[in-house]
Amino acid sequence: MTDSTRHSADYLLQISRKLFAAAGAPDDIASTVAEILVNANLAGHDSHGVQFVPMYLDRIEDGHLDCKAYPEIVRESANTMHVDGHSCFGHVMSRSAMEWAIERARKSAVCCVTFQNTTHIGRVGEYAEQAAKAGCITVITLGGASAAGSQVVPFGGARGALGTNPIAVGIPTGDDAPFVIDFATSVVAGGKILVALSKGLDVPEGVMVDGQGNPSTNPEEFRKGGYLLPFGAHKGYALSLFFSLMGGLAGEFNAELTSMSGLFMQVYDVDAFTPLDGYQRNVRAVLDAMKSIPPAPGFDEVLVPGDFEHRSRQQRLAEGIEVPAETFRKIEAWADKLNVSLTQEH
User: Fold this and answer.
1) For position 4, what pLDDT does the model report?
2) Which of 57, 52, 55 has the alpha carbon at shortest distance from 40?
3) How far apart are CA 200 and CA 222, in angstroms?
4) What is d(CA 116, CA 145) in angstroms, rounded to the nearest whole number?
5) Residue 141 belongs to what H/E stretch?
6) Rounded CA gap, 146 and 318, in Å?
7) pTM of the entire predicted model
């Protein structure tokens, strides 16, 4: 295992914000992206945390990400919105779209959102938590399917044709641990392979294959052209393909590549269906009932979705966040390039 360094969330937030600002992002954009990245680390999902800071800076430099741009609603109805991301930070686009969708759902009960000109949006569960904390239920899908190739093999296939195609669900509980589902339809998210690479670790069996379709536990094979596997065999594959087709509601289809993809958000205002306070109490009661089930041999307790993130946040706020040495070296290299001090300001 490679070395790592431990830093406070405040420090990682500060240096990430300074680096994005130095690259040209307005202060509000730099702050939003830094906050969402560090939130992912605090939630225990390092695959979507500050390890992406150097990659985003690379994309700003090569022109694939416009760090000064803001999203815009370009088409709308009482219950729908179509948002143009203008190749801005996907985090800014997604947080803004969720804010707009929550506001629209409070007026019309439900709001659905499609997108164009998007970039990487980070941890999808971030936006599910945003909706849940606002008293709304949300379902967010992000999918891509292409005959030209991608990261994940379809069930029974010899090469990749799907993205990791995640789903996130948020349901309010009236407390600081909302019910949140957030997982890729591949066995693991691609970012977790990058984490394994940065730490010098193998991945478990059944996660990936090499470029020839042979089972592998070496994450270096993924970098060389390997693929991830869908979770649950044919069931995960079916869901992954479904999310790709839902993304196609944005109306974008590449006939040459036989490609359909996109981000899709659905937001429901709980109060439009049943009183929010009572619903939240009932949700918490059901979740607590699940947690009261005696644990099976080999388990310490029964958990519910959202517990892991809530506990991780409490622990990491107190103890700090470990960052792989390789990741921090890349951050230091960008700091030198942008003439940014990594000394913590008080």
Assistant:
1) 85
2) 52
3) 13
4) 16
5) strand 136-146
6) 44
7) 0.92
Contact 166, 142 (CB under 8 A): yes
Closest CA to 181 of 289, 338, 45: 45
Say whether pLDDT at 251 is over 90. no
Strand partners for 186 = 230
What are the tens digits of pLDDT across the range 171-192? 999 999 999 999 999 998 887 8
**pLDDT, tens digit, for every residue of 266-294?**
999 999 999 999 999 999 999 999 999 99
Return the structure tokens found at 79. Answer: 């219950």
Bridge partners (DSSP) listed for residue 70: none
As a three-state string, the secondary structure of 43-90 is CCCHHHCHHHHHHHHHHHHCCCCCCCCCCEEEEECCCEEEEECCCCCH
Q: What is the helix (H) or strand (E) element at residue 179, kind and residue range?
A: strand 179-183
Write down all domains in the chain, each with its CATH number in brackets: 1-68+305-346 (1.10.1530.10)
User: Which residues have a Cβ under 8 Å from the Cβ of 336 and sit 6 or more positions away?
Assistant: none
Contact 107, 136 (CB under 8 A): no
Token digits of residue 331:
């951050």
- How far apart (Å, rounded) are the C-alpha atoms in residues 102 and 125? 16
Burial category of 210 from C-beta neighbours within 10 Å (exposed 0-12, middle 13-18, buried 19 and up): middle
Give the Cβ contact number of residue 343 at 10 Å: 9
Q: Which candidate, 128, 207, 191, 178, places its Cα nearest to that of 308?
A: 178
Q: Virtual CA dihedral for 234, 239, 240, 244, nearest 10 degrees? A: 140
- C-alpha separations of 186 from 27, 72, 153, 259 in Å: 35, 31, 9, 18
Q: Around 160, how many Cα atoms within 13 Å sit in the side-chain half-sphere? A: 21
Token pair of 235, please?
Answer: 């069931």
Q: CA 247 to CA 143: how far, in whole Å?
A: 6
Chain-centre distance for alpha carbon 77: 27
Q: Determine the Cα–Cα distance for residues 216 and 208; give it in Å rounded to an integer.
A: 6
